[in-house]
Design goal:
Blueprint: H1 2-11, H2 18-28, H3 33-62, H4 74-91
């Protein structure tokens, strides 16, 4: 059921047919309990790290809120963005 919901959400139609599912099981096998537990562990670690990263990113980008009334011309705005680009680019790495 979950596969059908994901297919509909992403593709707009059911993509994973029983034949395709059988071929995937034949090629990759069924996930072991240990692997399933490890995947769950990785998911929680990634979610925890991502939460911290999102908070850090929000704090950094809050420093770069620009007031539209501060700029007289688009050129001034462009220059300001170029000055801050180096700092903002480092966040995305």
């Amino acid at each position: 059921m979950m596969n059908k919901m994901i297919d509909l959400a992403i593709c707009g139609r059911v993509v994973t047919t029983p034949e395709l599912h059988a071929a995937a099981i034949e090629k990759y096998g069924i996930v072991s309990e240990w692997r399933r537990l490890y995947i769950m562990y990785e998911t929680f670690i990634t979610a925890w790290k991502n939460d911290a990263l999102v908070k850090k990113t929000i704090n950094i980008f809050n420093k770069y809120t620009l007031d539209a009334n501060e700029f007289d011309t688009p050129h001034d705005l462009y220059n300001t963005l170029n000055e801050k680009y180096g700092e903002i680019f480092l966040v995305t790495l």
